[in-house]
Write a structure and sequence with these properties.
Elements: E1 6-7, E2 13-15, H1 18-39, H2 51-66, E3 81-82, E4 97-98, H3 102-118, H4 122-137, H5 147-152, H6 166-184, H7 188-203, H8 220-231, H9 234-246, H10 253-264, H11 275-279, H12 298-315, H13 318-334, H14 366-382, H15 386-402, E5 418-419, H16 421-426, H17 446-455, H18 458-461, E6 462-464, E7 468-471, E8 477-483, E9 486-492, E10 500-517, E11 526-529, E12 535-537, E13 540-548, E14 552-556, E15 561-564, E16 576-581, E17 584-589, H19 590-593, E18 600-602, E19 610-616, E20 619-631, E21 648-657, E22 669-670, E23 673-674
Parallel strand pairs: 7-10
Antiparallel strand pairs: 1-6, 2-8, 3-4, 5-22, 6-7, 8-9, 9-10, 10-13, 10-14, 11-14, 12-13, 15-16, 16-17, 16-23, 17-21, 17-22, 18-20, 19-20, 20-21
Helix pairs in contact: 1-3, 1-17, 2-3, 2-4, 3-4, 3-6, 3-17, 6-7, 6-8, 8-9, 8-12, 9-12, 12-13, 12-14, 14-15
Bound molecules: beta-L-arabinofuranose and zinc ion.
The site of zinc ion has 7 residues, from α14 and α17.
Length: 676
Amino acid sequence: MKEYTKPLNLNQVRISDTFWKHEMELVRTRMIPYQWEALNDRVPDAAPSWCVHNFRAAARLQARRRAGENWQYEVWKGTFETLPRDGEQPDDNAFYGFVFQDSDMYKWLEAVSYSLVQHPDPELEKTAAEAVELVCSAQDPDGYLDTFYILKNRRGAFSNLKDHHELYCFGHLTEAAVAWHQATGRTDLLEAAEKFADCIAAHIGLGEGKKPGYPGHEIAEMGLLRLYEETGEERFLDQCRYFLNQRGQKPHVFLEEVNAERAKKEEKPLPEEEDKKLFAYYQAHEPVRQQKEAVGHAVRAMYLYSGMADLARLDGDAEMLSACEALWKSTTRDKMYITGGVGATHVGEAFSRRFDLPNDTAYSETCAAVGLVFFARRMLQIAPKSEYADVMERALINTVLAGMAMDGQSFFYVNPLEVEPEACRTDKRLDHVKPVRQKWFGCACCPPNVARLLSSLPQYAMTASEDSVYVHLYMAADAEVTLGGKKAVLHVRDGWMNGKVHIDVESDGACGALCVRLPSWCSNPSWKSTKGEGVVENGYVKFCGEWKTGDSVDLELPFSVMCLKADWRVREDAGKAAVQYGPFVMCTEEKDNGKDLHMLKICPDSLDAKVRTETICGMDLPVMDVHGKQISRENDDALYTPWHRSQEEDTRVTLVPYFAWGNRGGGEMRVWQRTE
Ligand code: FUB
Ligand code: ZN
């Protein structure tokens, strides 16, 4: 059987990188505490979360039940988001917020767990342990755990799998439970997740009296496989296989749910053929093995494809893998922004048609970029090809990082590639685009997703099998690996931002391959090693042999300034160029270039770029000036006048890394620059 690679355990890697450690520390020291305040609704002037409130209300309900009261708080009236009425005091016993609010608690717990492995913190662990206790005390005796239905009406549970997110919350619960178990050795949350998994399996499946359902919002697939890998319990693997195999099968379970609702309103049932149109949003329009095009809600899609890739690996399922490859290609070749963002339209937070990648109305949800990183890492585990790592890095360093302010306390949900603040404030079509990061969101899926990804970053940097270790992302770190049954420590030295990667190996005879990625952004890489010349395979240089202390690998990966153009079918970017420096997609901002960025041109043929290091919000970042033209703002007194070439003056155009935009006050921003 083919050998796949796995991420290293978090306790095997210690990151010391100037750039990445800074981001991880921002999450640990600023974001995690801030998010706890947000989940407790203690951030002034921020949208309330209701997350802790809901768990408390559910725990209270369970306590009353245990005390013998047959107590059901309220009967669900069918709303997706419930808020206290204007002027009313919130009711301590009621559910508030979106149906999936529980997931924010789980994502926070997951991030905390990763952070505890890297950085033990008894105070934080105590807070998290209390949160875990609260979660467990909200669980129904049969294992059901979703505060929305527990508080609203348990009889409604599993009735609306399409939209009501119980299985999504379950997925996040399992991810948190595994991380918490690995970090602390505590089994409390893991047991809660296993009980909920068993409760789900008792109600959903193909057996007698069960509903042949699956998640409307995917993630349970990935979660179940983590639960399987952590516990070794085959039933969780089976449950995941079932979810993936059942998705999109006929008779269509979501259509049955829709028609059950229609019947209540005495409306005619929708015919079978409707499933293609209605359920592409959920990637349930056809069985997963037949899916070739990335469609529908982008976060759901990324989570589904990640789960598919996990199962393809565990089962050695070639058909599933080939669906993953097709979906990867569709996502990254036809539908991905240069920033690694996916999901071009706010309508359904979804993928649009091929090559439709508008810049100002872009959706590009932070969670979707996080999901693309998940998908990429899973594809890398199956086949270490640098194209997967290139995309992983693109999404991570540009869009995921943009999702968090450089003080770790405000966030983007949507990541546009062009912003005019006045338009965002006044134009309903741009309601979803915020020109400045927000303190929190009623639907706050993105910030905790950034936190859990960044605090588990080492698991994306390297993967290993028994005889090979792959370095996918460069960051200074000390990593313990086992090659050919013997230990080795890789000391990756700081310096990738200056184009230099030096790895010292400490070992007493570890035997195997050390494979280092050649990033696509580097046109002239070079390397040397005590282990010879190395062989290039799938975008990695592979050095093999028996490793002894004193062995090393040196890579020169100089950053260069690249002007990129989009495929001619991307209408939005015709006549424009984007600038990239190393892995950093660059953008212009009003702060450096004044207003009306659309009246600036860059000159790719004579770019004459001068790169300097500037400290932005405490981080040393590459900033560049390039040769450009200022197009004159002619004071025409008519809206339309006979065409003539506008006056232009030479100017310098300043660009900063996209991820850092909007950290120096609001203002215009643009990734794709005019060239004509
Ligand atoms: O539905 C749960 C999460 O909320 C999705 O992943 C996001 O897109 C947002 O809609
Ligand atoms: Zn999100």
